[in-house]
Amino acid sequence: MGIQALPVTIEVHLTNGLPRLSIVGLPETAVKESQDRVRSALINSQFEFPLQRVTINLAPADLPKEGGRFDLAIALGILAASRQIPSDDLSHYEFVGELALNGDLRPVRGVLPMALEARDAQRQVVVPYDNATEASMVSGASILPVKHLLDFCLHLQNITPIIPYCTEHTPDSATVYHIADLSDVRGQYHAKRALEVAAAGGHNLLMMGPPGTGKTMLASRMPGILPPMAENEALETATVASIAVGGFDADLWGIRPFRAPHHTASGVALVGGGSHPRPGEISRAHNGILFLDELPEFDKRVLEVLREPMESGYIIISRAAHQAEFPANFQLVAAMNPCPCGYRGDSNNRCQCNPQQVNRYRSKISGPLLDRIDLHIEVPNLPRAELRQDRTSESSADVRARVIAAREIQIQRCGKQNSLLSSKDIDSHCRLKENDERLLDTAIEQLGLSARAWYRILKVARTIADLSNSENIQTSHLTEAITYRRLERKKI
Fold this sequence. Notes:
By secondary structure, the chain is α/β, with parallel strands linked by helices. The protein folds into 2 domains: about 10-155, Ribosomal Protein S5, domain 2 (2-Layer Sandwich), CATH 3.30.230.10; about 175-415, Rossmann fold. Helices cover about 40% and strands about 15% of the residues. The chain has a 5-stranded parallel beta sheet. It starts with 8 loop residues before the first strand and ends in a 9-residue tail after the last helix.
C-alpha cells in the first residue's frame, strides 16, 4: 500500500470431503492461479498434496491481494497443516516468493519494504535467492535466501541450515558521476553557476535557450555535483524503485536518481496511478533529479499535476477502496526553447515567429508552475571561437565539494536544505539590511512577482551566501538571486 508493506496472514484448514482447494480473502487472478503452481511445486518436490478439502484464507479479508508473492507461504501452510513439516517455528519468519512448477523460487517486486517491516517485527524474512541482495539493503534485517522450496524445509528441520545473507553496499560514485563531468561543457559559465546554486540549495531550475546550446548536457551533469545520499535517503529511494516497474538495481544503491520522461508522458506516468497505485516518475526521482526537456511540449494538464508535489514533497493517489501515498521530494530541472522554432534571439536572425506565437508558446507554462521554479536562466548560443578554446573548466568533483560544504552549513543551521525552509525559518535565517529590503521590494514590484516568488528569492540568496561561507545575506547575494527571475510572466 504505497511504499508500506502490510502483513498478510496465511491460514490453512484441511477437512474431510471431496478434494478441492479454495482461496478466500479478496485474491486477484494471479493469487487464485497460485493453487495450480503450489500443487505442482509440492508434488514435484516429493511432497504429498492432501486429498482433502483445503481452504486457504488470506487475512485481512478486506485487503486486495495481487501477484505471486504468496506462493511460498501458501505451500508451507499446506505442508504444516498436513504435518509434513513442523509448524512450531513458522511464526518466527516472514515469507515471500513465487513458486515455479518444479519448486524453484522466482523473484518478486517489493521485497525491500517487506524486509523493512520484517525487521521492525523482529522476524527473519525468507526471500528468493535473486531478491536477497535487494532485501539486504535494510540494515539489521535477517535475510534467508532460498533457491528451492526444499531448501527451507531442510532448514526448518535443522538438516541443512541456511546462512543469513550479508553483503556490503557502497555506491561506486567514481563510475557513475565521472561518466558525465561538468568539465565537458565549454563556456556557459552563468549556467554552470546556476547549476551549482540549484544543487547547493535543492532549488528547481529552468533553462531557456536555442537548440544545441547545451541545456540537456548541463542537466545530465547535475547528479554529479549533488551531495551524497544519507542512508535513510538511499533506503527511501530504493524502496520506491523496489515496487516500481522494472524493480530495484543494486548497482544504483546510494546514487541519486535522474529521471527524464518524454514530453508525450501522461499525467499518470508522471505522478503514478493504476488500479493498484504504482509510483510515477516524480516518485522515481525521489531525492534526485526530474528532468523535463522541451517543457512547453508537455500537455498543460500534465504539467499542472506537478504543482502540489513540488510544494509538499509527496503525492497521494486515491481510489474508491483505498489511497496510497508515495514520496516525491524531487528537484525539477527543465529546459525549453525561447519560441516555437527555437531560434528567437539568435545572432543569425533565423527566427520567423511573431510575438503572438511566442506568447502562445510560452503561456503553456502557467504562472503558478513558473512561480514554483526558483531559478530561471538563459543559455545562449556561444561564438564558435569560444567553443574552440581549449580552456580547462572546473570538474564536477570541484563543484561538488563546494555544494557539500554549503549543504553542511544548511543542515547545521536548521536541519534541512534551503529549498525546504518554512516562512518562520526565512524570517530567522534570511534577514536583509534595510537597503537590501528596499532593493527587493523594487524588484518585486517591477517584475510583478508573487509572495511565493519573494520567499524563493530569499531562499536562493541564502544559498548563494552559504556558498560564499557568509553568515548574512549581502547585497551581491541578493542581486544575483534576483537575476535568476528574469523569465517571470510579466517579462515574457
